[in-house]
Structures are given as C-alpha cells and as structure tokens.
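Hi, here's the filled form for the chain we discussed.

Project: internal
Contact: R.S.
Residues: 277
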Amino acid sequence: MVTDFYMDEIIRTAIKEDINYIDTTADLVIPQAQRGNAYFVAKASGVLCGIDAAMKVFEMLDRSFACKLYFHDGDKINEGDIICEFTGNMRAMLKGERTALNLIQHMSGIATETARCVEIVKGTNASITDTRKTLPGLRALQKYAVTVGGGKNHRYNLSDGAMLKDNHIDACGGITGAVETLRAKLGHMVKVEVETRNLDEVKEALAAGADIIMLDNMDCATMKGAVEIVGGKALLEASGGITHDTLREVAETGVDIISIGALTHSVKAFDISMKIS
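And the returned structure, exactly as it came back:
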C-alpha cells in the first residue's frame, strides 16, 4: 500500500514539474469554464496498476472532477478495454493528461512484467522480488506496482536490513569478520544478508550465521550446489543477469528468492491513451 500523503507528495512534484505556472496551450485556447468528458483506453494487454494515482492527478487540479472506474489495480485488461470515464474542467484534464498517463503507464508496465515473471516460476519454491534499482522519488509507487503484479518487495531502503555486498566484504577483509562486526551492533529485529560469488563464500556465509545468502551472477549448476550446501539453514537469493529465458531454470535450482532489478529500472511502459469523448 502507498499512503495518501506519500502519493500526494509525488504527484504534486510531478504536476509542478510539468505545468510550472501556466500551460501555454490549454490556458490560451480552452475557455476557463469549459467542461468535458474523457476516458482512458488500453492499447495493450496486461495488469493494470496506478489508476488511483492517475485519477488523483486530475483531482488535485480540479475539485469538481469525477470518475467512474471499470477496472482496478491488479485487474487484467485487454487491448481496447475502457479503463475509466471521467468528467471535469477541460483545461484541468488537458493539463493533467501527461502526468496521469506517465504514472499509470509506468506502474502498469511494472505490474505486467512482474506478473509475467511470477507466471514463469509458478510451481517452484521461488518468489520474485524487486531491488533498490528504482527511479529516484518513485520507489514507493514502483515497489507497490511489483506487489500488484504478484511479486514481493526486497528491502525498501538501507535501513530495512543489513546486506553485506562484495565491496563491504572486501573493505572489511572477509565475510566472517564483517558478519561478526554486524552481529555485535545490530538489534535483534534486523536480518543479515551476505552476497557471495562462489561456493567457498557460500560455505563461509553459512558458517558465519547469515540469515540470507545472495548467489550473485552464478550459473545454475553452481546455484544447485549452493542449495545442497545450505540445506535450508538460510534463505537463498539468486540475483544478476536473469532473463525470461533463464528464469525458470534458475527457479528450478531450489533457490527461495529471485531478485530482478529490471522490474523497476528498465521496464517497458504499458500503452494507455486518454481520449476526449
């Protein structure tokens, strides 16, 4: 879920960025009091996400705005579906069009891609998660979109968990010392994840007491070896270079988590258009 005040702040920033102080087209060619009707139509098939955020753009610009939703976040939509119809001040609708579409297209793209990945690994033990590779300022909406698509969220920010990546480990002189230093200072609620590059590091991370072990850019044969070594004593996360073509094979190695940065950092926008009735 995304709290209203968090979403409002993101939307206000986007509106100010796009409109500034005047819309030199709509404000000069559309009479101030003119009202009208419009609708959103899907131009592709996938999972809808961001409809509430899109409608809130128009609501912020026009207190008289009213909408009727035919689909909601998480619904599957097909090309040609009318997603919603709305009415309000024409200037406001035209001013908010691009910002509203940017949000719903991006969020629906994330939800659609996540749903595709979740379907690929269906029947295995693996869950699909995002990463911190998000667009600055949009993390809350992007991570929400992942959950709408059926995925799970990795840590939200650096405060959510301790993750010893390769650079931390190298700077600390090794996995064991880094984990021991963390354990001496961490509160009892915080878990420790260790990034590993080979099976020797997997063994060391397990012996050091890591809660989660990341298998970074390992091939599937090596991942299977890691699953046998760990034997359920820690969660295993596969990460790095995973594509649709390799996703199922990775899931079948027996890992618990597959984290995919591409869900948020390079997803294709879902095609939705706004049309004036």
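Let me know if anything looks off before we file it.
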